[in-house]
UniProtKB/TrEMBL annotation:
Taxon lineage: Bacteria, Pseudomonadati, Pseudomonadota, Alphaproteobacteria, Hyphomicrobiales
InterPro entries: GlcG_carb_metab_protein, PduO/GlcC-like, PduO/GlcC-like_sf
Name of the molecule in the record: Heme-binding protein
Signal peptide: none
Top-level taxon of origin: Bacteria
One Pfam match: HbpS-like
Amino acid sequence: MSNITLAQANTIIEAAFAKGAEMGLKPLSVAVLDSGGHLIAFQRSDNSSFLRHEIASGKAYGALAVGAGSRWLNAQAETRPHFLEGLSSVSGGKIVAVPGGVLVKDKIGAIVGAVGISGDTSDNDEICGIHGIEAAGMTADGG
């Protein structure tokens, strides 16, 4: 299984920050994980609050855990709360089930990692994640 490279992760982060600035968003934090859930790169904008690393990583981690963007997890939280309670328990509380966790797929559709963004509304976080992934030449799946 291939993974996102550090260069691709940095491209994703740079493009996500640029999109956030273009949209006039609050300070963003961006985590890029490989397909095994390991951190490749993380950056936070100036004045980003202190738990943003955990939130961004949790969005990406949750997407990888279920093979779907965190928007899907958010829908499951509404319709199947016991599923999310169990998932949270077995993950040690690492999963954040709100939009902003976006799977990254390669040219053949294989999952190569995930991006998690936190700082503005979940919908805006997701928009920036998708933009960053596409700017790196990969396919985004927000769920």
